[in-house]
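User: Design a sequence. Structure:
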């Protein structure tokens, strides 16, 4: 079976490429920069940009399935950049799948497409999209997710997965940012970090995607649906962050600010950065303040029932593996 994973140079995409290759699939990816590690593992790399429609259509020739894990993350930057990467890139993937008569498309979405900046306790896939968004990433991912699900048909089966806060060995975003800010004393809890969240260990995110790929086909019971994917172990934010810091041999976070102060600071920094034309990300934005302050954990029973999904790695075991990786790579 021939599978393309977009975003192969990213955290999730790279892990997917390697696991699929290990399982004897023929794997390819699209990359804008050199991907020597993937090539070394026998993964075919097409160099180009997802916003180039002709290039994408040619790259998808001869495939059976596509896992579209590429996208522009983050919470800061011009809307045009997010729209181009997250929406136009997805439109081109859909077009390429249709032109090449590919049978299935698995889209990596995000729970943020339904995050209304309020507590979300055990919400399921019935949670509606928002009328307006406070950040470009969730807005453009919501547009892209809806395009993918709308493209589901009798010839192209589509599904959207919503893994939440992926972390683990190889992480270049969540854990490194936490560690770097904690080292310089710029990582604070909001409202003491008592809000409840859940996360997704990298192996579990990969597992969910492969399950979906193997079950997805035109007319299957998962076609045209979306699913939350997490570790299924919601706990206070402070407990999760401090457990990660413990593996990095760093002290617990003890300083906290009230939610209103974090949100106000985020609004002020967004204003100042905008008028100054700064491209670097503020240390906090309104969206990030709410993410860190609100409870957001999700009901994964639909994925368990339809995909047969069960987390392979628990939080405790994942933390031990994270610590081992940090030590082996000199990141402490």
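Assistant: Done.
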């Amino acid at each position: 079976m021939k599978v393309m994973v977009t975003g192969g140079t990213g955290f999730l995409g790279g892990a997917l490429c390697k696991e699929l290759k290990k399982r004897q699939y023929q794997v390819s990816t699209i990359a804008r920069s050199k991907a020597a590690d993937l090539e070394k593992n026998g993964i075919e790399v097409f160099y180009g940009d997802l916003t180039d429609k002709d290039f994408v259509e040619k790259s998808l020739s001869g495939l059976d399935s596509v896992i579209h894990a590429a996208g522009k993350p983050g919470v800061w930057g011009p809307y045009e950049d997010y729209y181009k990467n997250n929406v136009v890139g997805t439109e081109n993937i859909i077009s390429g799948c249709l032109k090449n008569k590919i049978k299935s498309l698995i889209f990596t979405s995000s729970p943020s497409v339904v995050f209304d900046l309020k507590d979300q306790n055990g919400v399921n896939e019935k949670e509606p999209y928002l009328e307006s968004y406070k950040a470009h990433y969730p807005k453009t991912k919501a547009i892209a997710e809806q395009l993918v699900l709308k493209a589901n048909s009798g010839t192209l089966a589509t599904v959207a997965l919503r893994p939440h806060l992926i972390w683990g060995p190889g992480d270049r975003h969540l854990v490194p940012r936490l560690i770097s800010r904690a080292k310089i004393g710029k990582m604070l809890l909001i409202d003491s970090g008592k809000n409840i969240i859940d996360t997704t260990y990298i192996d579990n995110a990969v597992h969910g995607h492969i399950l979906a790929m193997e079950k997805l086909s035109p007319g299957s019971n998962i076609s045209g649906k979306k699913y939350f994917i997490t570790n299924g172990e919601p706990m206070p934010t402070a407990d999760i962050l401090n457990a990660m810091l413990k593996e990095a041999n760093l002290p617990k976070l003890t300083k906290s600010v009230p939610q209103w102060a974090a949100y106000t600071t985020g609004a002020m920094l967004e204003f100042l950065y905008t008028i100054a034309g700064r491209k670097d990300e503020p240390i906090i934005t309104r969206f990030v303040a709410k993410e860190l302050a609100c409870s957001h954990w999700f009901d994964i029973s639909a994925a368990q029932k339809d995909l047969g999904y069960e987390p392979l790695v628990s939080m405790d075991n994942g933390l031990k593996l994270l610590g081992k990786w940090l030590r082996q790579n000199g990141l402490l």
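The chain is about 40% helix and 15% strand. The chain has a mean pLDDT of 94.
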